[in-house]
Amino acid sequence: GLSQYSSDPRTEWDLSAYSTREQVLEAVRNLRYKGGNTFTGLALTHVLEQNLKPDAGARLEAEKLVILLTDGKSQDDANLAAQTLKNLGIEIFAIGVKNADEAELRQVASEPLELTVYNVLDFPLLSSLVGKLTRVLCTRIKERSHKETAGSAVKDTPVNTGPQLSPTDLKISAVTSKSMHLAWSPPLKPPKKYRVVYYPSKGGTPKEVVLEGAVSSVQLSNLTSQTEYLVSVVPVYGTAVGDGLRGVTSTLPLSSPRSLRVSELSHNSLRLSWKAAQGATHYLVLCSAAPDGAED
């Protein structure tokens, strides 16, 4: 699968779009370059929310790898978004070209960095990485797949076995300027705990709530108004972690005072009145003379 990004990420094709090498190469040849800004954090979130879903072709049993190719320093918090992917077991390779920030590449990439971080001076030099990167990627997939297979032989519950271990149908409701309510349908096998992680999509410190496995809803409070939040609900078992639910929603703006009225006018005073704004503790009233020629 492939997505391009600037200020707005764009999916070019999903994992399930092509089934042969020739089809993929033809798609690459027809790709049109998308210029613009460098919102890498938003792009990584797009990959997680849109491209690594089963309906986009992501298979539960397959290793998840993301290769980031960038020619500049991110204009948002790429490290936070990358950490979210890595926490979910997704491995990130970071490739920089020209003006890429190597320190940022090393923050974003998975360990070991000597295998996952690459930087070249110009685009034509990317061809020199292809052979090595291909070998590293294939080896990493084999290593990780082998660990999963070996590990599941001695575990009661393997990782990511779909509906048995994964909640479904995340619903976000009762959204206000500083709170929202999450609810979901529990998996067939109840987990020991749920980890609910939420943070602003434009960057910010992730916050986490841990719930008992019998609970299937939570109220998130003390949020920032008019802010887009990413939320994930991850079921945790004694020996495994199920597939998480993910969603995105925006809190409402703070309520405003309404119906401003002016009365009791005199040569040097006037009275203002309005309908109160819900939850407001103070008001700031600003007054200035209208410019010459404007309506009083």
From TrEMBL:
- For the region Disordered, what residue ranges are annotated? 148-167
Compositional bias annotation for Polar residues: 158-167
Residue ranges of the VWFA domain?
1-133
Instruction: Note the InterPro entries from the entry.
Output: ECM_Assembly_Org, FN3_dom, FN3_sf, Ig-like_fold, VWF_A, vWFA_dom_sf
Q: Where in the cell is it found?
A: Secreted, Extracellular space, Extracellular matrix
The segment(s) forming the Fibronectin type-III domain are 166-255
- Which coarse location class applies to the principal site listed for this UniProt protein? secreted
Source superkingdom: Eukaryota
Alphabetically sorted, this entry's keywords are:
Extracellular matrix, Secreted
- Spell out the protein name for this chain: COKA1 protein
Q: Which organism is it from?
A: Platysteira castanea
State the encoding gene: Col20a1
